[in-house]
Amino acid sequence: MTRSMRAIVFILTSLAAVGSTSAASVLAAEMFDAAALSRGLSSIQREDLRRHVLVLADDTYEGREAGSRGGRAAGGYLHNKFQEFKLAPAGARGSYYQTFNNGFRNVLGMIEGSDPAFKNEVILVGAHYDHVGYGTLQNSFGPTGRIHNGADDNASGTATLVELVEAFVAMGAPPRRTILFALWDGEEKGLLGSKHWLSAPTIPVSRIKLAANLDMVGRLRNRLEVLGTRTTYDLRRKVSLANRDVGLKLDFTWELKEDSDHWSFYERGMPILMFHTGLHDQYHRPSDDVEHIEFDGMRQITELLFRTVVEVANEEQVPGFRSYARRESSFDRRRIEQPLSTLPPRLGARMQVEPAGSITISGVEPGSAAARTGLLAGDRLIRLGGAEVTDLPSVRKRIWAAINPLEIEVLRGDATEPTRLSVTLDGAPVRVGLTWRGDDATPGGVILSRVIAGTAASEAGLKVNDRIYAVNGQSFHGQEEFLQLLKTAGDEVELVFERQGMVGTARLMLLREPPEAPLTMLPRAHSRALAGENKGN
């Protein structure tokens, strides 16, 4: 037993000894879950993925056309893997297979959930394992008559699913919900395998809470396409937080097409999720071979999906289908992500830092608050609102946050005594520097529509269209809760934000004075409920 394990045992024993049985059990469960997650992640290996793709994309399988000799051999390989991992058979008549169309075969296995209250609910993870065989004029970009090994399409997705199975088995402790692993046949002939399963399901379709799909995940370049996050609620946030320790750049695509097995479930009104690394020059050609596969990227994608499925399978409630997803378009996306115009300056004076460290007015905008007050180019700032001027960022923050009138002291020309001016700044005080919109698909987040230059938000590195998911470690539901968290956050605010699927932390250092600048509620940006309201702080 390691020193750390002995310490854990001591803590649990001590808690139980003083009657904190519930606290001890919660702590034990958290540590157990973390250990199980770690075991699963450790099992995801680049070389395992490579080995599976090498087998499935070998000429021996003759392009894995559904119903062909090679297709059946590929199904046999996958059947044996499910058997090796001791999955519960989830096909027809107590087997791993579900046959259809005179020789096509889906391969299905299951890990039953650990929680009696949730194990009836199922997270399905699927991938099609068939390809186009020797190719025809209808399904190949040529040349036809040669083996189309389909290393990316879709040996990559199939290998990822097999490695995902191994990760769940390696955990040693199933998640609360049941996981159904499905390898579909006949996808290339019209999504036949997934459609057949839905017409003749081997478990009740009503048990499916989320259907994830892997199709062509072997060519990770600069980003991973993630589809379907708007078919339910907060799925983008969950995928992004799962990505925190993976670090992939994600493209959350809104558009859904009838181009892979996710569509079969989406069409039936089920939440879906799909990972895809994009099309390429070898797509549906004999040249889609193993040498082009990016196995390190596949390992990262497997880890991301594993973390995501574990999270969804263990949460208290899995949201249902978001029907509005059927009516959303690229126009809706442009509208909800459209930046707001910049705000006019409050003072209207350009400033620069001199070599000696003093801050000097270098120019004054005509008609601005600075011009109306009589500030002149060459004035050296000494104090703002009674506080000594120390650096340019704090000067800008103080000007944005100030409540009128703002007292300014400057040294002018050769004078040794400061000139005192009372400035009535333009616009309302802004302490944080954020304006945001809500998003119906992500009630656990807000979208930044404006980040004001010179404020604490800008200084912390936040940008327009960043998503905010937590304030000082506390999650929220809806814009009002977010607003209240900001109001009570204090002088240091830590925001968990997401940008293109990558999660970071922004630390905002707010001014102590004024203690609280008024918060402003901006007009509604769009009339549709999709965007919600804009708010400023």
Write the layout of secondary structure elements.
Layout: H1 3-17, H2 21-42, H3 46-56, H4 69-84, E1 88-89, E2 97-100, E3 104-111, E4 122-128, H5 151-171, E5 178-184, H6 192-199, E6 208-214, E7 224-227, H7 235-242, E8 250-253, H8 262-267, E9 272-276, H9 295-314, H10 330-336, E10 349-353, E11 359-364, H11 369-373, E12 380-384, E13 387-388, H12 392-401, E14 406-411, E15 419-423, E16 434-438, E17 446-451, H13 456-459, E18 467-471, H14 479-487, E19 492-499, E20 502-509, E21 534-536
Parallel strand pairs: 4-5, 4-6, 6-9, 7-8
Antiparallel strand pairs: 1-3, 2-3, 3-5, 7-9, 10-11, 12-13, 12-14, 14-15, 16-17, 16-21, 17-18, 18-19, 19-20
Helix pairs in contact: 1-2, 2-5, 3-5, 3-9, 5-9, 7-9
